[in-house]
Amino acid sequence: MRTDKSLLSFTIYAALAALFLLLRISIVNSQMDSCSLDVSSFLPAPFNDSSSLSCRSVWHTFDLRYSKSQGNVLTIVLSAEYTSGWVGMGFSKDGMMVGSSAMVGWMGKERAHIRQYYLRGQSPSDVVVNQGQLLGTNVPEVVVLNGAKIYLAFQVKFEAPITRQPLLFAFGASRPSHFRLTEHEDKTSILFDFAAGSSSASSYPVQLKRSHGILAIFGWGVLLPVGAIFARYFRQWDPLWYYLHLAIQFLGFLIVLSSLVAGVSLYDKIHANVLAHRGLGIFVFVLLILQVVAFFLRPDKDSKVRRYWNWYHTWVGRLALFLAAVNIVIGIRVGGAGNGWKAGYGFSLAVILITVIVLEVMLWIRGSKKPADPPAFQMHPPPPAFQMHPPPQ
Ligand SMILES: *[C@@H]1O[C@H](CO)[C@@H](O)[C@H](O)[C@H]1NC(C)=O
């Protein structure tokens, strides 16, 4: 029991260290800013009034300049790095793509275009030009290429004073033909507070989101499955399997805890509309805490209830790993993570699944070769020998 106690205090210290590290990452992150460029020299009135425009970095290279004027009119200048394809900004009711309206701009072969689209559905054919529900003003929209950046400038009129508004940002890689947009390369959904003053500039927490994803994939997708593999397939290395299982699962727990901290502070910043991902993430973390608690409360090896504890510990662990894998896939989807993430997680998942299949088959072969031995994976105490072999006459 003494080792349990020192393990517990080690866990707490390590968790605090992880938390501290994450806080540092998020502070460093909020200091980066790319709003300094003056747009008044290359944009026409009324978009040239730099002094009235607030600016915030919202996502990747996307900067949002805006000002509110009488009659609930919002003046927007969206800028983003641009080589080809299209750049868009959507106004959503609930943070989701379907049902929202968007302004999309691109450099055509002869001239630049900016158009409003209605996002009726998710497929390119459901993104219809000139049918959005945004009300314009009599100021014409403008799209300009300046240096490496494209600028979309437009005004939108709202029926009520505008404060917090779910916004979508996206870009596509290929130039629209006949005003038909290709699917986006990447997109995001944020809740933007237009009521906050210009002083509260904050950038989109790209690094925080990345940390959340990397930590979750490393903890849930790599460490915890590997620790479980030691517990199931390497019982013959007694007691090494036990210490490996313990050490890896505790490290995994810490990494998952850090990923949860990152996820929570990410949610505080962007209020992403990801109910299923959040709910499932919290649920699997509760399962993980139950596993830690169960470890400290485990009954003695020779105790009668130990077999029920073993059964519980094994199945809660499997359930947690399975649901966590589902949630990683959901997270990659809702986070709009690129192909690198999909390939990375797909690869690690494939390696783990193949390892498990191979080890399971080896276990099965070993078990069927030597039926007299208790199989190595046996979690319950083996049945007493006299049940299997009738006692000698
Ligand atoms: C914006 O452009 C208008 C018309 O070209 C000009 O009269 C005005 O002085 C400009 N404002 C600023 C702040 O540059």
TrEMBL record:
Organism lineage string: Eukaryota, Viridiplantae, Streptophyta, Embryophyta, Tracheophyta
One GO term describing the cellular component: membrane
**Keywords, sorted A to Z:** Electron transport, Membrane, Signal, Transmembrane, Transmembrane helix, Transport
- PROSITE patterns in alphabetical order: CYTOCHROME_B561 (PS50939), DOMON (PS50836)
Task: Tell me the ranges covered by the DOMON domain, including all copies.
Answer: 60-172
Membrane-traversing stretches: 213-234, 246-267, 279-297, 309-332, 344-365
Q: What is this protein called?
A: Cytochrome b561 and DOMON domain-containing protein
How far does the signal peptide extend, from start to end residue?
1-30
Entry superkingdom: Eukaryota
Q: Name one Pfam family in it.
A: Cytochrom_B561
